[in-house]
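Aim 2 progress update. The chain analyzed this quarter is reproduced below.
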Amino acid sequence: MEIILILGLALLFFGPTRLPALGQSLGSAVRSFKRGINGQEDDTTKQLPQATATTPSQQNQPPQA
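Predicted structure tokens:
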């Protein structure tokens, strides 16, 4: 009975058009949370190779031959 009440209130607050999008975002958040707990790495959080950073003093110097 409580679940029906909660779903009815959600339908009133968000409307029928936004409710599926909210469910999808909630599902992806739960999946991401479970992956984080299990220690699995998400595709979007893989580390990219780091570019070599130059300091401002190195940028002003002419290239050495």
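The chain is about 65% helix and 0% strand. The longest helix spans residues 2-38. These observations will guide the mutagenesis experiments scheduled for the next reporting period.
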